[in-house]
Design a protein that fits this description.
By secondary structure, the protein is an alpha/beta fold. The protein has 9 helices and 8 strands. Keywords: Hydrolase, Magnesium, Membrane, Transmembrane, Transmembrane helix.
Length: 347
């Protein structure tokens, strides 16, 4: 065959295009591998900073337990708080650190911070604020790393190598305190607003769960998925709020069961920090219904982008942010999706 004939030129062009594509792909892959390596380093550094902030807070709490006046803590609560602080420090960087920190926060419940000496109160508030900031830095690094690792090229070429898949660090934070040692908000400044909420886990016949994709107006580039629900009004209980919110957001009605789970969380939305206690109820639907969002508020129309039904497998594999974090794990355990008294604590 004459290479420089009509057919030969076509072959040369095809080979050249393939070579160029391979070179470009290789360059892009190298660039993403380097960026992924930097992100893994960032996650590791953020994790170390978070652990340091947690260790400092645990040390401050131990000092509080040892020196707080009798009006701030009973002897029993003092011993329990000291033991919880030591357990948190002993957990180090292990996965059990989240549970230990949540227990430490729970043990701080009886603490009357308003009666603490001003210097100790200020140090405790500062330690809380530093934990909030360190946790946000860590979780932001995790989010960016997971997003890149979810790219098709990164997965196909295994650019992450043997690096472990980064995990979010989610813990409850101390509730807002009107005293001088008020708990830090999600941005480490103003106290968080206490808020009760009711949410609904809607499951179809195939055990898919209904989730909305939302965005925080203060951080419009960050999206997340969440269950239907909202705040409890002053004149209603959580079950009534769940029924009302479900009807307004989805058009669905029906008998709810539960609550099945309870979640204590501190978060910010549109620049306002909230300390929320969320009760989750359960609704099973058959057949799969049409979702009617005509009852959305003006804020919901601006911040909720879409809805979809998720399988447990999809939830376990996604790099998207999903609340509650344990949703895939919980849906995989039939015993977890059932009314409980008291409701099962989740994160």
């Amino acid at each position: 065959m004459n290479v420089f004939g009509p057919g030969g030129w076509v072959l040369v062009v095809v080979i050249a295009v393939v070579v160029v594509l391979l070179v470009v792909t290789a360059l892009v892959a190298v660039g993403r591998a380097r960026r992924l390596d930097r992100l893994h380093v960032r996650v590791d550094a953020a994790r170390l900073g978070l652990v340091a902030a947690l260790d400092r807070r645990a040390a401050v709490v131990r000092a509080v337990a040892a020196t707080a006046p009798p009006s701030a803590l009973s002897p029993t609560d003092r011993r329990a708080l000291r033991a919880a602080a030591r357990a948190a420090e002993a957990a180090g960087e292990e996965r059990g650190r989240e549970a230990a920190e949540n227990d430490l926060v729970a043990r701080r419940g009886p603490l009357e911070t308003a009666t603490l000496p001003p210097d100790l109160s200020a140090e405790l508030a500062d330690a809380d604020a530093r934990v909030v900031v360190a946790r946000r830095i860590h979780n932001d690094a995790v989010r960016d790393t997971r997003a890149l690792r979810g790219r098709r090229m990164v997965r196909a070429l295994r650019l992450a190598g043997t690096a472990p898949y980064p995990e979010y660090f989610d813990i409850a934070e101390p509730a807002a305190d009107p005293g001088p040692a008020a708990g830090a908000s999600a941005d480490g400044n103003d106290p968080a607003v206490a808020r009760d909420a009711a949410r609904v886990v809607v499951l179809d016949p195939d055990e898919r769960v209904l989730l909305f994709e939302g965005v925080d107006p203060a951080r419009p580039t960050e999206t997340f998925w969440f269950t239907p629900g909202g705040g409890v009004e002053p004149d209603e209980d959580a079950a009534a709020a769940a029924v009302r919110e479900l009807r307004e957001e989805t058009g669905l009605t029906g008998g709810l069961t539960g609550p099945v789970w309870v979640r204590d969380v501190v978060f910010s939305h549109d620049g306002v920090a909230y300390a929320a206690r969320e009760l989750f109820f359960l609704l099973r639907v058959d057949p799969v219904p049409e979702i009617d969002v005509s009852g959305f508020t003006e804020l919901e129309r601006r911040t909720v982008r879409r809805h979809r039904w998720w399988t447990r497998t999809e939830l376990a594999a996604t790099v998207d942010v999903v609340y509650p974090r344990q949703l895939a794990e919980l849906l995989g355990d039939p015993g977890s999706v059932a009314p409980a008294d008291p409701p099962v604590p989740i994160q």
